[in-house]
Amino acid sequence: MVRHDLTTGDRCGALAEAHLLWQFWCLLKRDHGEEALAEAIRQQLKRPSLPPQLDSVVLDDLPESPGVYLFYGDNDALLYVGKSVNLRQRVRAHFASDLREYKEMRLSQEVRRLHWHETVGELGALLLESRLVKECQPIHNRRLRRSSDLCTWHLVQVAPGDYRPRLVGGQAAGCLRSEDLFGLFTNRREATDTLRKEAAAHELCPIILGLEKPARPGRPCFAHQVKQCRGACVGKEAVDVHSARMIAALMKLKLTAWPYPGAIGIVERDELREEEEVHVVNGWRHLGSARSEAEIQGILLGESGQGRFDRDTYNLLTAHLAKGRVRVRLLSER
Fold first, then answer.
1. Cα 58-62-66 angle, rounded to 5 deg
2. Judging by DSSP bridges, how do beta strands 275-282 and 264-270 pair with one another?
3. Which of 12, 55, 69, 316 is 20 to 30 Å from 174 at the Cα level?
4. How far is the CA of 293 from the CAs of 67, 256, 331, in angstroms?
């Protein structure tokens, strides 16, 4: 106070302290300028505000490589699983923003322990994050949590040219290689709602699609009565024509059939670190990742009990394989 010639005047308590702070702030602005102060604040906010329960050495030990990190709380409960192509940078960012975002601040207050798994590349980190979130159900992860078993529409030919949609479970082994699957849904209601929207948009018959039961034989569906169905239910539209229109309407939902005769290895390599990792996949299921031939064979031997089919992994794998920039090894033909 004396050094900077600050005074409290006649004030006392909290009001006096606030007045002192205001005087000091005005002094700083006069001596350094508003822009310099703003930059100093920005730099301060970028610095990690490490939770008091964590040793500062932890951040220094984090590698600057791809991988997955895990935050643990009281009683070693798993709070959060995240991934990054630079583990040190991403974890530091969590604590740098904990004063600005409620979610980050809450996580920073709860974390007691940090653990991480290095991967060779980004795909390995994405696959591992997805698997750990679904297996461990961390408290603060929402997006990747596994819901109930997936379902999908499977087109079945009941007569020449007459195709009908049947709802089947996404885990059915035969479905993973089928050419006639449309959409991945978390439950029956989502699947049915989607089919109803397509029926309304393309004047398809709800009775033919199995969405409505006829009042009595020969009776048209309700949609036809309000001119929203072309009459396949009463013979006004040929069933094969209706089937063709239905398939065309569903094409945007069509799943990519598994294009290999068996399991494959997606090879991910880091030339700088001279490290290589093989992601073993079969029927869009990620069975595991390996860094040696022995590990690959171990994964293949235990394949029947490994890897669930899920939407996130399917999307990840189809996207990476579609890019054509990954090296694929055929591992089995079954």
1. 150
2. antiparallel
3. 316
4. 22, 29, 11
Q: Which two tokens stand for residue 247?
A: 């398939």
What is the chain's alpha carbon radius of gyration, rounded to the nearest angstrom? 29
Cβ-Cβ contacts under 8 Å for 107 (sequence gap 6 or more): 71, 79, 80, 94, 98, 140
Query: Quick one: tokens of 56?
Result: 């500062």
Give me 244's structure tokens.
């063709």
The continuous run of DSSP H or E covering 287 comes out as: strand 285-290
Q: What are the residues whose beta carbons fall under 8 Å from the beta carbon of 104, sequence distance 6 or more?
A: 94, 95, 97, 98
Q: How many residues does the chain have?
A: 334
pLDDT of res. 174: 47
Burial of residue 275 (CB within 10 Å: 0-12, 13-18, 19+) is middle
Burial classification of residue 124, based on how many CB atoms lie within 10 Å of its CB (0-12 exposed, 13-18 middle, 19 or more buried): buried
151 near 111, Cβ under 8 Å? no
Tally of CA atoms within 13 A in the half-sphere of 154 that contains its CB? 17
Q: Which residues contact 49 (CB under 8 A, 6 or more apart)?
A: 95, 96, 98, 99, 108
Angstrom distance (rounded) from CA 302 to CA 262: 14
Whole-number pLDDT of residue 8? 57
Measuring CA to CA, which residue among 277, 274, 264, 266 is closest to residue 117?
A: 277
pLDDT for residue 198: 96
Question: Any residues with CB less than 8 A from the CB of 212 and at least 6 apart, and which?
Answer: 206, 221, 222, 223
Buried-exposed string 70-79: b where 16+ CB fall within 10 A, e elsewhere: bbbbeeeebb
Partners of residue 156 on adjacent β-strands: 164
* Rounded Cα distance, 181 and 165, in Å: 9
